[in-house]
Amino acid sequence: MSDLQADFALARAEFVVRVAFEVPAGESVAVLGPNGSGKSTVLGVLAGLAAPDSGQVRLGGRELTGPSTAVPAEHRRVGLMGQDPLLFPHLSALENVAFGPRSQGRTRVAARAAAGEWLDRMGLAGLESRRPAQLSGGQRQRVALARALAAEPDLLLLDEPLGALDAQTVPEIRQVLRTHLRDTGTTSILVTHDVLDAAVLADRVLVLERGRIVDDGPTGTVLTAPRSSFGATLAGLNLVPGTVSASAAEGEPVSIRTGSGLMLAGVAAAGLRAGDHAAAVFRPAAVAVFLDAPGGSPRNHWPATVRSLEPATAAVRLRTTGPADIAVDVTPAAVAELGIGPGAAVFLSIKATEVTIHSR
Question: Where does 4-236 sit in CATH, by number?
Fold first, then answer.
């Protein structure tokens, strides 16, 4: 595992992309921002496909870009995977994946052996001899991911890797990515427009606007309490981190305990083990607000204080503090009926079926 240090500037026609950030070894960072904000430019500099006007990029102690250094892309030990898998059409799935380790200097036999192992991990055993045209979109994307990881990159760059997939394939590939980023401990940067990708895959989020980092923090913090105009649009989900209380298989009921001691019940998005770091993900509109403690099961009920009220699409967004700081969407009529304002003490409740628990 390698840490990344980047501090560089590159002038574009509209503005200057000027960023400075670090990614600890094994961490996954999502880069979010409007179209044309400079996200792909940042990846291009890291991958060695674009030269900055000034600054430095260091990976695992090696200087890749600097005043007198420009390591070629093929020698950086940086893997790049985009929404187009860009597989070699004349090569089989096995040979496509073997290209990665071959580019790192392994023998043909060793590269093929590694490729076979990675295809098996991706659930593609038996498809080794098929060419890209004989594979489905999801299978091609898995081959591309296997190729990127088989090269054992010190840094993996993911540029909208799920953007070209159909809606039925996206959850499958997102799960593959999550599992392998966790299991391999690969330092990674993910550029995406999908807030769920960030919620499931990233430890941290950077928000980029006109070439500047305007928000940087843990995923849950950035998605629920944004500090920028674009970040505000990301608050479509609540994310509450915690620890899994008891093991559960995909689709089974499961609970997490947060650092404040709150227990949140939900449904496992994938297999979870007791003690795993996880996160509960749910929509602000799924949370109900009461002035008095609701009856019934105490699970997923907790007291909170309204910090602020903000306008939202066809709703009012309440920012609340308590055992979990979350956003809640209610109707203007409900705000008037309940007499809710800043400082109001309320009780929040959400059905377990509305909560998805993801491993982190």
Answer: 3.40.50.300
Q: How far apart are CA 175 and CA 181, in angstroms?
A: 10
C-alpha distances in Å from residue 147, one per residue of 92, 98, 121, 265: 12, 7, 12, 38
Please tell me the pTM assigned to this model.
Answer: 0.68
CB 220 within 8 A of CB 279: yes
Q: In the CATH hierarchy, which fold is given to the domain comprising 239-359? A: OB fold (Dihydrolipoamide Acetyltransferase, E2P) (2.40.50)
Which residues fall within 8 angstroms of residue 6, CB to CB, at 6 or more apart? 19, 20, 21, 22, 42, 45, 46, 55, 56, 57, 58
- Cα separation of 325 and 328, whole Å? 10
Per run of 10 residues, the mean pLDDT along the chain (length 360 residues) is 91 94 95 92 94 95 92 89 86 94 88 93 91 91 87 90 75 81 89 86 93 90 69 71 92 92 90 89 90 74 93 87 92 90 94 85
Per-residue CA distances from 277 to 133, 191, 240, 322 (Å): 39, 23, 11, 21
